[in-house]
Every structure is written in structure tokens, then in C-alpha cells.
Amino acid sequence: MFIVEKAQLSSHFRSFTKKSKHVPRNYQLDARSFDEKVIVLLKTLDLAPNSSEISLSWMSTAVSFLSTVHSEAEDQISNLKSEADDYQALYMEYSLKVLDLCNLISSAVQRLTDRRLLMNFSLRLLNFTDQIPSPEKLNKAKDALGRLLNDSQESAKEKGRRAKDLMEELAVLLVKLLPRSKTSSGRDLIRRTFYALGVLTVFVGSVFVAVLYGDFDVIELRVPAEFLWADSVNGVRTRIFDLIKPKQNGLLELGNVTSQAVVVRDLLQVVVSDGGDNVDDRVRLEDGVKELGTAAKKFSDGIDALTNGVNGMFRTVLKTRNGRLDI
């Protein structure tokens, strides 16, 4: 972000009647500029009118949004120099929690990657290029799809609880930063910027925890009306939370892959049982495998994009954190 400052003009000729006056920095203008950037960035999180589930694509956009806001906030705060030192310890605490959250999100995405491996293994076995695969391959593919469909959240419960605790800890941290007056000083601007960053982190983080770990007891922080983007983020958040609360797994690409995997698994059972002699069953199985391959491609692309986004977020926060330590 570019900080708006009024230039301090000086003359080549000294005046003996007047001294040059220092033009004070307009902190409220800086705050407004930051708010306007957040409003523009929030538009990237808008869901399509017919959306019924959160997609991996949206999650990738959301984590990129958070990385950008973090960079904008850092630019705002770092330009305030000495005033920023007062919030050094608080930022260290905040950034450590965000890095921890990134690791927990990465762990959840890795579980999706493991399911992708099972799916790709099944698709390799179900190659209909020349003829129907052997009974041995059909059985192996059916077993692999069964393991994919029987994935349990049990092993991830502890990490899910930790992710939820992090959201609550960040919410408590924000209480210390809640703006109490107009932005009339560098400290006020830092407090306000830092609070905005924290609120947006809790918002995006809560969605990720809900979708990836299945914990729908989300934390909803209402943004004070003094922030120009309050209505925008409150509106987006309400729509998203209303979308994910009723669902046990609100991830679009995973739902598509899972439903198609059920179809293929059941067809495999039929084909294996009749020895592959029924032509209609074989045709339906081949068509089902093609549809599974299409769904798997979208699922795989979504996982890769989200992985890159979370890694980018981690690097952004770590770079900023290291920069703060070097000051």
C-alpha cells in the first residue's frame, strides 16, 4: 500500500518574518485509503448467485486475499516507524498463531491429497483403452475407492480442536486492539490496521476450519461501522456461514468426486459379480470412470491451487515476522 503524505515544502529563500510550518500527517486519510483497498479485495470473495457449496477455488482466492491484506497492513504499519515498536510483541504473538493456523490448514489439505492418491490409483487400474481391466484390477480399484469413501475425521479431531482454539485465541487478542477513538495519531492508525487484519484473519480462518475440519461452531466477529468495509465483510460472511452451517462437508469438488466414486464403486461390484459378461454394465462402468476422471481433475487442480496459496500465505507472514525481528 502507498501511504498518502502531504509534502513539506521549503523555499530557497529564508524568511525572517515567518517560519515554515510542519504539515501534520492526515491519519484519517491513510485509514480511509486502507479501507478502500479492503473493499476492492473483498469483492474477490463474492460467491456466484447459484453457489450451494464452498469450492477449493474460492478457498484459494480467500487465502490469497488474506495474504494481500497482510502485505497491505504491513506496508501501512512499517511506514510508521517508531510507533510500530509499541505493537511489536503483539504482532509476534499474532503472527505465531497465524503460522500455526497455516500448518493446520496444510495438514487438512494433505488429507485431501491422500484421498487424491487413492482416486488416481483407482483410475489407473480402470483403464479401458483396449479392453475391460482384469478382475484383479477391478477388485483393487473397488477396494481403493472404498478406502477413499470411508475416510474418517477421527485422526484429525485433535488438530481440528487446535485450529478452533487458535480462532478463539485470535478473537481474544483482537479485544486489545479494538479502536477506541478517531484515527488521530500513528498509534491509532496501527491499532486500527492491526484490528482489521485480525478480524479478516478470523473470518477466513473460521471458514477454513469449518470446511476442512467439520467444526461449524464458527466465531462471528461483527465489524464496527466506522470501518468502510464493515457492510461488505459482514454480508459476505453471513452468506458463507449460512451456506456451510447446514452441511457436514461443504466442499464442492470433494462432494462431486465422492458422489461419482460411489457410482463407480457400485458398478464395479456389479461387473465383478457377473464376471464382466453384461455389456450394458461394462458400458455404464466405462462412462462412470470417465466422469470420475473429469471430477478428479477439477479436484486435483483445486488441491494444488490451495496448497500453493497456503504456502504463499505462510511465506508472507514469516517474511514479515522476520522483518519485524530485524528492526
From TrEMBL:
It is found in: Membrane. InterPro entries: ROH1-like. Keywords: Coiled coil, Membrane, Transmembrane, Transmembrane helix. Residues 70-97 form a coiled coil. Signal peptide: none annotated. It is a single-pass membrane protein. One of its GO terms (cellular component) is membrane. Its main location: membrane. The chain crosses the membrane at residues 194-214. Belongs to the ROH1 family. This is BYPASS-related protein. It comes from Cynara cardunculus var. scolymus (Globe artichoke).
